[in-house]
Amino acid sequence: MDRAETRPQAGPRRSPTLAERFRDWKHRTIARPGFQKWAAAFPLTRPVARKHARELFDLLAGFVYSQILLACVRLDVFRMLADGPLPLATVAERCGLSLEATRRLVAAADSLELLDLQSGDLVTLGRLGAPLVANEAITAMVEHHATLYGDLTDPVALLRGQGRPAMAGYWPYAAAADAGPGLPATLATEKVAEYSKLMTASQPLVAREVIAAYRFGRHKVLMDVGGGEGAFVRCVAAEVPGVELRVFDLPAVAERANENFRRWGLAGRAQAFGGDFFADELPRGADVISLVRVAFDHPDERVLTLFKNVRRALPDNGTLVLAEAMAEVPGVEPIGDAYFGFYLLAMGRGRPRSAARLTQLLHEAGFASVRSLPTHMPLQAGVLVARCTA
Asked: What sequence ranges are listed for the domain O-methyltransferase C-terminal (predicted)?
């Protein structure tokens, strides 16, 4: 797939608003070295200048910070401190590091509030490290990002579509789906194992937001399309009794989901079906279908095809629940536009979309009404509910 940037079409020109002109003047003023020197020295502007300098340096140092987090995860430091403080020497011994190297790591993690180096060389969990204890979802994503960071070593080459990023080979599901009708025989179970493991580990973070935002108990049958190994419907099963559960995914993934259902004691309530949700008809019978972190893996034309297939599979009173991280979300704009924008670029397909754009595609697919539901943590996921009839 050619990931090279396409040249946008020129639209009608408009005059900038007064607010836009003021913002442009302000930024051009800040760009002047003389103004920067004055702002850093003047007592009233000095706090703002220091704050902006810190924010800019954090952008520069972000990769270093993330690697400190990765070191703590790989050395299992957070779990090590789950039961309380430990002497620095004990942490060094358990990590297999020298005392000096451990002190450097702990001091760095302390500055990031991941750890807390107390008096007497005692190490304990920090404000941001405590939530990582036994949190498989976050630690799995931290490990996974080593692949992404490798692809981002040369971001300009990535933007120009030069070379083949490792991330593109990591997601065989999306790659196969975008290849066109029919699934390659080479997409065997072992090819999707690593992908499915990560999705299974990280899914509860999103599932918690979706289940809190939408009441699935009003439905009889839920089918999670692109549902992987069944992690999302497992979460629904634990919170919503009585709903019949289904998963539709690639045959190799569906096989793993059915194995999981047997192991989780859900075999009598949950079943997975294999197929291609772009080329194959989806099974009928569900009155609610969920798409959890599926649409943003694909370009607009493929997403529209998927939405139309979902609409055909639903009854006239059916509902689609779509959940994923979205662009242009107030307060968390960098998550959608910066993080997922480049994450999906490295994948070689897909894009983050705003709720407005997704709503437009859902209407084009035949859904009569679409509404957005608030979530507790918008950086994890936004939720849209589309109904077949108004």
From this structure: 189-368
